[in-house]
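2024-03-11 09:14:02 INFO worker-7 job=invfold-0412 stage=load source=structure_tokens
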């Protein structure tokens, strides 16, 4: 049964082009054990080792989920943002599908204050109490602030504490999240 599953997984990876790597001149030496050859100037990745590593990553994620740890999904590239957002929403996990906010991990207390401010703005606008207490200009400014906070904190509003782990789709593009 696992051999059939592995074959299907290998075919799926092959069909998506996961076996194509960088041009040989741009390859990092530590990648050599995961390569099986070259085609033209491009390296060819060993898909069997890739599936082994994917299974190991799945096991780590399953362990984190079993322990009740919070995993933050990160993928701000245009190509992957929608996929990251959908995958995280399917399992009710926090995500960052736009630009990474500096200090999301290292300066959590300030990010938490911004999340709390957004919740406060949403509560007051939902009850309608804002219109009675503020001028029109103040309401416009609060609306802009709310919109800006919603855009920046979209997927992390449910976080109550600093995440225990990050699942980063592209470490090169999300270098500030990894730093």
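2024-03-11 09:14:09 INFO worker-7 stage=emit residues=179
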């Amino acid at each position: 049964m696992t051999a059939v599953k592995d074959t299907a997984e290998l075919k799926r990876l092959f069909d998506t082009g996961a076996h194509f790597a960088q041009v040989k001149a741009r390859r990092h030496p530590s990648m050599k054990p995961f390569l099986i050859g070259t085609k033209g100037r491009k390296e060819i990745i060993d898909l069997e080792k890739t599936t082994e590593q994917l299974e190991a990553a799945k096991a780590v994620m399953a362990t984190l989920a079993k322990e009740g740890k919070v995993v933050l999904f990160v993928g701000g590239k245009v190509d992957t943002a929608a996929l990251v957002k959908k995958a995280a929403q399917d399992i009710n996990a926090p995500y960052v599908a736009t630009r990474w906010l500096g200090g999301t991990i290292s300066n959590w207390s300030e990010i938490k204050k911004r999340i709390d401010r957004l919740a406060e703005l949403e509560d007051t606008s939902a009850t309608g109490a804002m219109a009675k207490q503020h001028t029109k200009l103040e309401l416009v400014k609060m609306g802009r602030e709310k919109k800006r906070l919603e855009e920046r904190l979209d997927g992390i509003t449910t976080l109550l504490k600093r995440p225990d782990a990050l699942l980063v789709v592209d470490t090169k593009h999300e270098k500030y999240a990894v730093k």
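2024-03-11 09:14:09 INFO worker-7 stage=report msg="The chain has two domains: 1-58, 69-179."
2024-03-11 09:14:10 INFO worker-7 job finished
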